[in-house]
Structure formats: C-alpha cells, structure tokens
Amino acid sequence: MAAKIIDGKVIAAEIRTEVKADVGRLKQAGLTPCLAVVLVGKNPASRSYVGSKVRACEETGITSLKIEIAANAKEQDLLDQIDKLNRDINVHGILVQLPLPHHMDEERVTERIDPAKDVDGFHPENVGKLSIGLDGLTPCTPSGVPELISRSGLSLSGKHAVIIGRSNIVGKPLMNILMQKGEKANCTVTCCHSGTDHLANYTRQADILIAAIGVPEFVTAGMVKDGATVIDVGINRVDDSEHSRGYRLVGDVAYHDVRDVAGAITPVPGGVGPMTVAMLMKNTVKATRMISGV
What we know:
This protein has 294 residues and is of the alpha/beta class. It has 2 domains: 30-114, Leucine Dehydrogenase, chain A, domain 1 (Rossmann fold, 3-Layer(aba) Sandwich), CATH 3.40.50; 140-273, NAD(P)-binding Rossmann-like Domain (Rossmann fold, 3-Layer(aba) Sandwich). Helices cover 40% and strands 16% of the residues. It contains 10 helices and 11 strands. It has helices at 8-28, 44-60, 75-87, 106-112, 124-132, 140-151, 171-179, 199-203, 255-258, 273-292; strands spanning 4-5, 34-40, 63-69, 93-96, 160-164, 188-192, 208-211, 229-232, 236-239, 247-250, 264-265. The chain has a 6-stranded parallel sheet with strand order 1-11-8-7-5-6. Strand 2 (34-40), helix 2 and strand 3 (63-69) form a beta-alpha-beta unit. Helix 2 (44-60) crosses helix 10 and helix 6 packs across helix 7 (171-179). The protein is globular, with a radius of gyration of 19 Å.
C-alpha cells in the first residue's frame, strides 16, 4: 500500500490562515507585526526567497520592510543597519537572508540581531533556550517538521525519531525540538551524520525518519522501516535534459522507491519547503507578542 502523502502546501496554508487571524487580533489591540528582511547582494536564489517572504507577509497582514545592501558593502554597514532595526520599536522581527558575501562573518552578523527579534532562531541565546527547554524563537524549517507530522494526524510522543544530518540550521535544532516535553514532541531522538558507521542500522529503527543531509536521493527503501513516517528536508538540483529547465528538483530521499515502504512521506517540492515561510510568519507574530507583552 502506497504511503500517505503529507502535503506541506496545504498545511502551510492552514498556518498562514491562523497567523492572519492572530495578526487581526493584534491590530485590534493597536499592534501591527513588522518583519524586516535584509538582503545583501543580488543572489537570484536569495532574492526569490526574500520575495516569497514578502508575499507571505502581505497575505497574513504583517508589515514587511525589505532592505537591500550592496554585495561589496562593508560588514560594518550591515551591522549598523541591524543596530538601527534593533532600536526601531515598530520592527518586531529581523531576518538577514543567508548566505552572505565571503567578506562578511555570518556568525558575527547573527549575534548582532536582538534575540527578541531573531525570527530565524539562530542567535546563540535562542539556541541555548531551545536546548534547555525555555520558550523562545526556534528555527523555522525544523519547527515546521512536528507541525507537518501532527497536523497530518500522526503521533510523535513516544516515537523513535532518527535524524540524518547535524547542521545548526536543521539537524541540531530539530533534535532539541523533538526531545522536548509536549504533544508535538516527546520523541526518543537519534541524530546520525556523515561520521555514523552502519547508518542503515539506525534508520531502519526509526518510527520517524528525517533526512537533512543534502545528498540527492540518499535514503533508499532498504534504509526505511515498513510503515515509518519519512520527512524529506533536502532539496537538490539534478541535471535532467528531459526537463525544460535542464534540471529537476529532488530531495534527500529516493521518493518513488521509499513511498512503497513508508507509511507517510513528504514530497519534494511541496513538503517541508512551504512550511519554512509559514513558520517564519508564526515566529514574527510570536516575537511581536513577546516584545509587546501581549
């Protein structure tokens, strides 16, 4: 029996609708959430990502500020802009679109953002809060994973979740999110990575298998337990002369093979991807409430 397809587009739309309602209530209380997005340079992928975030703000009623800085600007120019946004009482969320030009230090830039406005959830203070179970702003992509699972009618509590990947953007924060107490967490978590010997021995134990390793179609059917929930965080371009664009997008999971084994699976595209922007909107509302004490 083929796996249940977890539709990230539908679930992300549900979340954006909820955010729009929350924004409406905040506006009635005299508060308009505002997200500032800083784009350095003209990287086409980054411009596309920023555009999708601005459109999501328009849809949900969040005010957006798009600030563009030249690729050859000094790092101090970017830091000064962040300082200005930190001081602006009308700005509740700040996001600096990554990657940055090579002459800018991403860690230093991230740490300059006020943790209360760090809607990406990458500031060390927010990372620390997540690791010890305190309420804060959490990274958008990993935060979307338990939402996908729970809103699809699947249980997380008590399940064995195996994550492939240990990045600071997905793997590590997701590990901390899933092991917290709560209905949308409470998992037993194993985090595997490029240094894990006999990887399939771990993945075949997973009730929930999350692939975030950045290797096209790395997870095959033989690595998946029958009936497991498979969440594919990866998105990779693979050359394909049969496509008009000359390439196709695939995940870290060999989707067509694994869906015959899994109980539920996310497609690529259309799975985890749409959730990232939806959770960013949710984080912006959360930051507004935390800053304003509402």
